[in-house]
Amino acid sequence: MAKRNPHLAKLQSGYLFPEINRRKKEFLAAHPQAKLISLGIGDTTQPIAPPIIKGIVQAVKRLGKRDTYTGYGDEQGITELRERIASVLYHGRVKGEEVFVSDGAKPDTGRLQMLFGSDTVMAVQDPSYPVYVDSSVMMGQTGPLSSKTSQFKGIAYLPCTPDNGFFPSLGNAKDAGVIFFCSPNNPTGAVATREQLKALVDFAKENRSIIIFDAAYSQFIRDENLPRSIYEIPGAKEVALEVSSFSKSIGFTGVRLGWTVVPNELCFDDGTPVRKDWNRIMTTVFNGASSIAQYGGIAALEREGMKEMERTVSYYMENASIIRQALRKLGYTVFGGDNAPYLWVQTKGMTSWDAFSFLLQKAHVITTPGSGFGPSGEGFLRFSAFGHREDVLEAVKRLEKIL
Ligand code: PL4
After folding, report:
1. Which residues of the chain does CATH 3.90.1150.10 include?
2. CATH class, 53-303 region
3. Is 3.90.1150.10 the CATH number for 14-43+306-402?
4. Which of 81, 82, 162, 268 is positioned for an S-S bond with 99, CB 3.0–4.6 A?
5. Closest residue to atom 19 of ligand 1, CA basis
6. CA-to-CA distance for 278 and 268, rounded, in angstroms?
7. Looking at the chain, which residues constitute the CATH 3.40.640.10 domain(s)?
8. In terms of Cα–Cα distance, which of 207, 191, 181 is closest to 126?
């Protein structure tokens, strides 16, 4: 008899985003005429820009000819793309050989768990992207702490609230082997300053922890004084790996392309280079990102592609600004949305799920309940700035009518 992985039973019944979809479908079944607008899941809506499409089309055409056809590629990615990520996005702070191209930041986050096994305490910002906690639990982090809480024993929760400016007290991570840290943050929209990231790096060094830095939204940082990568902090290569993505900046959520930087300097406690083990894992359980997607990524990192990336990001950030202004006028306390595509909004006393249902029922607008990101998210709603401008304007009009 095949036994079920016992850790799966510890998870909450549904992953957050499919649960939101389920509620959306339920609502539509009861109200088939409703024209829902989604400011919920962070999914892109702008078309992929022409120079990037050109790179993709050329790659497809090469596959159709005997002389230029290629099959399996290196699991680590096409060398040209690895080099270009290192030079264009990291300005040479990392080497091409340290960049492992993948099918996205989320699958990499799941696979990274294999590096550490089930005995490592994981620290997460609370609230945080649910994949960090859920994939840790799947791996065997014991829990839950009690029937009354959704927290797990093998996970250290680092509350990020308005009171601490969304930067956690790191003392709570002293037992953690791994610290997940996301900046710009999903869901709070907060971006860690250089000083804060230096404190994080110093803490990890002293505590002998490894940071998994999720920079999936780095291109959305508008303020040039804010760090876009953990490697802008001296010494970070000894303690951090960085996960990132083409999903949001060039509309590749469906195409799928991301990467993880694993610096040569980064070692486990026993001195083994993390890069050696990551290479072993990736060459064993991953067969390389789609070559078509990778050529799209190469095109995106050329001059024209970069201009288009900036245009796409600016479009979504203009949406963020429209939503923020409207909610503030309506008397809501709104965080984020200035260097991140998410707005973190206090619900004026309602629970997150009640506020979610209220907006769904009364305005036919979908948001994401803050409590789905962790206990400290209770009492907040996350608004995503991804969407067509006309939908954002219409959503704002509807909110103005009912709030
Ligand atoms: C819904 C902090 C979105 N089905 O596309 P990837 O895999 O390169 O990146 C995923 C990702 C990684 N890191 C962070 C993210 O916020 C995301 C995407 N999050 C959201 O609304 O929070 C999409 C969620 C998708 C999912 O489960 O990732």
Report:
1. 14-43+306-402
2. alpha beta
3. yes
4. 82
5. 42
6. 12
7. 53-303
8. 181
To test the ligand 1 pocket, which listed residue (21, 38, 186, 260) has its Cβ within 8 A of the most ligand atoms? 186
Beta carbons within 10 angstroms of residue 75's beta carbon: 18
Task: Spell out the alpha helix ranges (H) of 208-302.
Answer: 274-285, 291-300
Residues with a CB atom less than 6 Å from ligand 1: 17, 41-42, 104-106, 129, 182, 186, 214, 216, 245, 247, 253, 258
| Closest to 49 (Cα-Cα) out of 315, 262, 275 | 315
Q: What is the pLDDT of residues 345-391, one digit of tens each?
A: 999 999 999 999 999 999 999 999 999 999 999 999 999 999 999 99
The tokens of 35 are what? 């024209």
pTM over 0.90: yes
Ligand 1 centre to CA of 257 (Å) is: 12
CA of 42 to the centre of ligand 1 (A): 7
User: 214 C-alpha vs ligand 1 centroid, how far in Å?
Assistant: 10
pLDDT tens-digit map of 52-64? 999 999 999 999 9
pLDDT digits (tens, 9 = 90+) for 96-143: 999 999 999 999 999 999 999 888 999 999 999 999 999 999 998 765
